[in-house]
Amino acid sequence: MVPPSDFPAPHIIQPTKSHHHTIIALHGRGSNGPEFADDLSEDKASEGLTIAEHFPHSKWIFPSSPKRHSTAFQEDRNQWFDVYSLTDPSTQEELQIEGLRDSIKHILDIINKEVEFVPPSNIVLLGFSQGCATAIHALLAGQYQLGGFIGIAGWLPFHKHIADLNKLYGDTLQLTSTSRSQANNATPALLCHCTDDDQVDINLGHQLRDALMAPGLNMDITFKGFAKGAHWIPAPVGFDAIVDFLRSRSFN
């Protein structure tokens, strides 16, 4: 188990105008918060602005994962949890438990602190790749209906267990200190994935979408598939989709 103190301090970009909204953005495996912030600032939407420039009233929080041992690569690397295979993430699924549990708790702590400044409806949780896989479980394990969820090139760990979240979070992940509420199921979500993604197959993105829309969760999901973009999203059209989604949630 990784103690809370072993998670690096989040990288924070303050709003350039008065603080109305907060976006918590989780990086992928092998990256960190500052690097992910740079990645998101390199591409622009159609109006020639970055996502952050479109929303000057939004504070950005970029958490960083600690270094964990990677069974697949036999080395320590920044990752939210260990995963043996991205071809079939359910292979040796038990490797994911400890890291996923620690990371979910860390993200929920960040959300709980942020609701002291803005209401939950003004918070969006965003994740890329393994960050998406972590963020969606943090959303489902939490107690708040957030303003939105954005997943980029992600998948759903423990997708076979998603029908019984109380058992998954209580028994398997042992998240005994969290207070899950079904209100979070009402959080609308945007999922983006590219057909030519050579790291996380788009079929895993479809699996995530279908699981979230299935009876029991019935989440409001918008799925955007793009032909080109590899393990990312294409500019400007992919970033336009994010801007449109945030605007639909009254972000500014």
Biggest sheet descriptor: 7 strands, mixed
- Gross morphology is globular
Structure classification: alpha/beta
- Beta-strand segment tally: 9
Strand content: 15-25%
Computed CA radius of gyration, to the nearest angstrom: 17 Å
What is the helix fraction of residues, given as a range? 25-40%
Describe the structure.
With 252 residues, the protein is α/β, with parallel strands linked by helices. It has seven helices and nine strands. Strands 1-3-2-6-7-8-9 form a seven-stranded mixed beta sheet, with helices on both faces. Strands 4-5 form a two-stranded antiparallel sheet.
Task: Supply the key terms.
single chain; 252 residues; alpha/beta; seven-stranded mixed sheet; two-stranded antiparallel sheet; 7 helices; 30% helix; 18% strand; globular
SSE blueprint and pairings:
Layout: E1 11-13, E2 21-26, H1 33-42, H2 51-54, E3 58-62, E4 67-70, E5 75-78, H3 97-114, E6 123-128, H4 130-141, E7 148-152, H5 165-172, E8 189-194, H6 202-213, E9 221-226, H7 237-248
Short synopsis of the structure:
The chain is 30% helix and 18% strand. With 252 residues, the protein is α/β, with parallel strands linked by helices.
